[in-house]
Amino acid sequence: MVAPSLKLQDLIEEIRGAKTQAQEREVIQKECAHIRASFRDGDPLHRHRQLAKLLYVHMLGYPAHFGQMECLKLIASPRFTDKRVGYLGAMLLLDERQDAHLLITNSIKNDLSQGIQPVQGLALCTLSTMGSAEMCQDLATEVEKLLLQPSPYVRKKAILTAVHIIRKVPELSNIFLPSCAQLLHERHHGVLLGTITLITELCERSPAALRHFRKVVPQLVKILRTLVTTGYSTEHSISGVSDPFLQVQILRLLRILGRNHEESSEAMNDLLAQVATNTDTSRNAGNAVLFETVLTIMDIHSAAGLRVLAVNILGRFLLNSDKNIRYVALMSLLRLVQSDHSAVQRHRPTVVDCLKETDASLSRRALELSLALVNSSNVRAMTRELQAFLESCPIDLRADCASGILLAAERFAPTKRWHMDTILHVLITAGTYVRDDAVANLTQLIAGAQELHAYSVRRLYSALAEDISQQPLVQVAAWCIGEYGDLLLEGNCEETEPLQVEEEEVLALLEKVLQSHMSLPATRGYALTALMKLSTRLRGNNKRIRQVVSIYGSCLDVELQQRAVEYNTLFRKYDHMRAAILEKMPLVERGGPQVGEEAKESKEAAKLSEAAPVPTEPQASKLLDLLDLLDGPSEDAQHPLPLDPSPGGALVQLLDLPCAPPAPAPIPTLKVFEREGVQLNLSFIRPPGTPALLLITVTVTNSSGGDVTHFICQAAVPKSFQLQLQAPSGDTVPAWGGLPITQLFRILNPNKAPLRLKLRLTYNHFGQPVQEIFEVNNVPVETWQ
């Protein structure tokens, strides 16, 4: 005799009335025991009630796997009440990972062929929810027959089930093509919406289906035009827009059909203009249709006027009070700024106003778009706006804003002085957040503008006197004071206000930097070197400088201690050479990476050709190869330089080193990844002394308009290899071909097996996180043979 158990409603009330989690567990355990007992006794009349209670327990997160077989029994029952609960249980308790789900295939097939609409609907819902690839293959024919059933209820569910079948088994796409063409004549909006969804899925997964359905573009245009021009309908209109769900789905399908196809695009141009001009934008439904229209216009071969209209629609979105609509507009304009730059430029004031948004996501997208809009004609005005934003922006945006301003100034600076003032303003405002190369760029700029040396050193000295907390600013100021300290003391700069500076004030300021707890070790190194250089530029006694330098000879920081010891030695033993050694730094020409590589290669080739007859080349090559192995790989390792005849060369000859074999041929560079301007190349070096060792230099470049940030490259190799990843040179690749990231892989291949690499890349680009995992199987054979 089965013990009495609670009804479903009573069970829900008792569980909700439990005061503690322990009481809830007690109630559920007690009821699950009654349910198990009922299942064991095989009570067919109350089985569906017991399973309904078990499903509620499952929804609360408690185990209910013992009800799986009861689902199968209820599905096989002829009673509709049993089938309803049985199919619901199958959708909740069964999935592809359990073999039991295959046992209901025959029951679903029988129910689909019965002709009872509610039962067919239950079977179709279950198949579309948890149908595996095997079930889809067995039941695809039955579903295809139901696509043309008289009942819209069954047709709609059969269409959605066909979508699931195509996703699981794309090979079955062809059997649904004839039915889709007939279903497009359907007048029932629900069936028509499902049909458009099915055709979209077919076109995305099958090139043959895409070519097939391009013939129905005129019919789709007609359907959409009817929706746009039809009057108000209580059954389908939402906020005054006629069936926006169907309109959006048709626009998505037209975008797929018109992409890279001139004839289809031309057929829908007039319709898109009509939708863009006639859709009501006072409600969210109309904005959804308009946004989908804009995406379609931008993705097909549309007319230039139509593209301008689409950009203007996004510009109106920026004025909308809804933050979500403004966010969508900013994201879309950011994607369009490269292809339709002039049209987007018209909305620059509105975009700049979005920088004042309190919402962090909106201000970030507005910042990215503002940086993308900077060009040579508006660089001054845009930089002023961005600098004003930098002073008040959230902390998490300061790094991106500072980096963007520096890149824009480097690309579009009208004058060197303006460029220098812009960088200096960024360093003063947000020096802690600038990129690592900002110091090198500014020092390079100052060194290359001789007419601005006096102006630069005065501006930097004044900024340093006001604030020594911004470390990049302190480093640049210390370098500049050390190089041009004599100009600071002269006091005859026409471009700045008169500034009288005494030698003791300059030395005291640098000592303050050295003693500050905020100064980094690198900053102290700049300040110590600046003091040393001032010893040759100041007219007074160097006693104070020598005292400061000698103090740091016992510093705990090894780098700083080494500098101080060397400077002390220079004072004591080589004072006659000090002025020559501490002369102003010569200007180092800095070109783009491609120019630098070509110059380097040509220079190496010239040296090799000139030194070909020198007999000491093998020894020099071997020594340089050893040095390269210790210091890290470089391009010179592929083309070792010969040793010129000199006393150093005679010393190498005296060592009588054995002759090294000829240098191996260079291994070609391999491009393994490219996406939206981000490219990853692998270059290979096999040191002659250790043939089992392979050095791979990973170089990441960025030719797009947005910075690549938080870049991480991870690698894996088969177990027979040994892999060591060196630290990368950075995690940010600036836009427009900025300084690339390099990383060294050291791979030991003792068995000389073919090399296979698996790489995982994660980074942020245009504000979106990107993750790519791929294998590299086409590594040149020279890397392992």
From TrEMBL:
Transmembrane segments: none annotated. It is found in: Cytoplasmic vesicle membrane; Endomembrane system; Golgi apparatus. The keyword DNA repair does not apply. The keyword Phosphoprotein does not apply. Residues 592-616 are annotated as: Disordered. Residues 665-780 form the GAE domain. GO terms for cellular component: AP-1 adaptor complex; synapse. PROSITE patterns: GAE (PS50180). It is a peripheral membrane protein. GO terms for biological process: intracellular protein transport; vesicle-mediated transport. Keywords: Cytoplasmic vesicle, Golgi apparatus, Membrane, Protein transport, Transport. Signal peptide: none annotated. Residues 597-607 have a biased composition (Basic and acidic residues). Pfam families: Adaptin_N (PF01602), Alpha_adaptinC2 (PF02883). Belongs to the adaptor complexes large subunit family. PANTHER family: ADAPTIN, ALPHA/GAMMA/EPSILON. This is AP-1 complex subunit gamma. The lineage of its organism: Eukaryota, Metazoa, Chordata, Craniata, Vertebrata.
